[in-house]
Amino acid sequence: EVQLVQSGAEVKKPGESLKISCKGSGYRFTDYWIGWVRQMPGKGLEWMGIINPDDSDTRYSPSLQGQVTFSADMSINTAYVQWSSLKASDTAMYYCARRGGGREEGTFDIWGQGTMVTVSS
Amino acid sequence: EIVLTQSPGTLSLSPGERATLSCRASQRVSSSYLAWYQQRPDQAPKLLIYAASSRATGIPDRFSGSGSGTDFTLTISRLEPEDFAVYYCQQYGSSPTFGGGTKVEIK
Predict the structure, then answer these.
(1) Contact A107 B35 (CB under 8 A)
(2) Which residues of chain A make contact with B54, given a CB cutoff of 8 A?
(3) Tens digits of per-residue pLDDT, B15-70?
(4) Structure confidence by residue, pLDDT tens digits, A83-113
(5) How many CB atoms within 10 Å of residue B50?
(6) Is B44 exposed, middle or buried (0-12, 13-18, 19+ CB in 10 A)?
(7) Which residue of A has its CA nearest to B97?
(8) Nearest CA in chain A to B33
(9) Which of A43, A98, A104, B25 has its CB surrounded by the most CB atoms within 10 Å?
(10) A77 phi and psi angles, rounded to 5 deg
(11) Are the CB atoms for A77 and A25 separated by under 8 Å?
């Protein structure tokens, strides 16, 4: 079964750092880009960017450039997003998703279950 | 950046009725790079439609997409109980964006 499994919920204080993960299985991890999508409480979906696990090429949303860092470790089929200094406004559900291939290229065809990040003093 | 505006914000319908959801883009969406996703409460989104009108694997044929350029539509021919959810459109050109969503609720 093709799936993405994300790390568990996090509660952090403003200014702290954080790295959350997304592990792929059931397919060749390096064949598909991994994307990240933010969903603030009660709000819609926001495209954050994508990373190619094969060579770590990244594309960030212009609005989030510099706010987060994507990385990947293809030896363990895992992608990451990290923050160096969290803000309360980073409180959200974060989804990873596989960027589709073939005719579905550009869409997100497989999604992780989401990681809830809460930033509060 | 292409801004996607979905309407209506909320659609109140009964099971068995037809749902028509709109997604309008601020600029032309190239090559019909337009997708639709369904998000049920407390679940991750699920891909329904890509390339404006192609159903993703396993999606029932009561879901259909149409449109081109700047105007796109998702139609659910007969609503099933599991279809009451929030629907998002996404353009996946050079700088992808999502629309704000349409909630389909039980009347």
Answers:
(1) yes
(2) 103
(3) 999 999 999 999 999 878 999 999 999 999 999 999 999 999 999 999 999 999 99
(4) 999 999 999 999 999 999 888 888 999 999 9
(5) 27
(6) buried
(7) A47
(8) A106
(9) A98
(10) 55, 45
(11) yes
Chain B partners within 8 Å of A97 (Cβ): 44-45
How many Cβ atoms from other residues are within 10 Å of residue A103's Cβ?
A: 11
Collect all residues of chain B within an 8 Å Cβ-Cβ radius of residue A37: 45, 98
Q: Do A113 and B46 touch (CB under 8 A)?
A: no
Contacts of A61 (CB under 8 A, 6+ apart): A46, A47, A48, A49, B95
**β-pair type (B102-106, B10-13):** parallel
Instruction: State both tokens at A59.
Output: 């594309």
Partnered with residue B105 across adjacent β-strands are: B12
Q: Which pair of tokens denotes residue A91?
A: 């409180």
